[in-house]
Amino acid sequence: MPKTDIRPRRDIVALLCDADFKRRRDTNTWTHRDGRPFSKGEQALVFRATRVELEEVSEQLARYREYRRTMDEAPEALQRFLAPFMEQLTEKNLGNAVQLMSEDDRTEFDRLLRLTLDPVRPFTPYTF
Fold it and tell me: How far apart are CA 5 and CA 19, in angstroms?
């Protein structure tokens, strides 16, 4: 029997990604990350989650953790990247360092600089 391609349902994945899994005593439901209780319909929907959907949530969260790690390490990575260029200079400034860079170096410099300047985005499913 051929194996079927079972895809996660995006609505369930999104709900699970937005859950903090703390059951509210007053509503007997989980809550959204912003503190709103799940509606009865939302609660029923997430209880029908399949293994594929739970695995997708896990993968989504792993990608976000990797994104956060990259963002957190960006300032130090930029310093390590610039160090060899700065060592070559008598007048140590960014403009002079950029002049020493190859096109590939400038591409990496731009990427690292962007990471240090961009605000950290909050977790949103299917974004990372």
Answer: 26
Are 123 and 71 a contacting pair, CB within 8 Å? no
Is residue 16 exposed (0-12), middle (13-18) or buried (19+ Cβ within 10 Å)? buried
Contact criterion met (CB below 8 Å) for 37 and 105: no
Going by pLDDT thresholds of 50, 70 and 90, the confidence category of residue 1 is: very low
Which sign, positive or negative, has the C-alpha torsion 34, 37, 40, 44? positive
User: Across residues 37-65, what is the average pLDDT?
Assistant: 93
Residue 102, pLDDT above cutoff 60? yes
Q: Is the dihedral of CA 101, 102, 107, 111 positive or negative?
A: negative
